[in-house]
Design goal:
The chain contains five helices and six strands; from the N terminus they run ααβββαααβββ. It starts with a helix and ends with a strand. The protein folds into two domains: about 110 residues, 2-Layer Sandwich (Zincin-like), CATH 3.30.2010.10; about 40 residues, no CATH class. It is α+β, with helices and mostly antiparallel strands and about 160 residues long. The protein is about 30% helix and about 15% strand. The protein is elongated, with a radius of gyration of 22 Å. It has a three-stranded mixed sheet.
Length: about 160
Amino acid sequence: MRTILDFLNDLDAQGHNVYAALEAADGAGLTERPVVWNTRLRSTAGRADMGNRVLELNPKLREEGPEALLSTFLHELAHLIVGPGHGHDYHWSAICRQIGGKASRCHQYESLRSTPRARKHVATCGTCGFELMKAKRLTQGRTYRHPRCGGTYVPA
């Protein structure tokens, strides 16, 4: 299993200036914590698992190139350094910039764009006949009302 130190050394060998990140990770006792490629991530670029202190990255980031990988890695490392309860607040933002990351919250990576789910479940309003297309099935035993006419939806 690769560690944060291994990952930073690889980035350094590629010519990226990661000294500040290495120093901050070492100061927080994170250099031996693992970095894993999480195949379950779909549209999320990375994730900081605070409970296990593990940095998770989406394997599709490799398609986006080294800058996207570096940016996401530093973003998630900043989360591990500041610890739980900070989210994207001022403290996290300051640490992220200090270690060389971009203190932005969202990405625009093409390979991680979410694709809309197929809307294959249909429910019809019993009053006006409006058809509601849903990706998920309506919950059994629950009443769904059409907001315009107040009629009840009936699963087709």
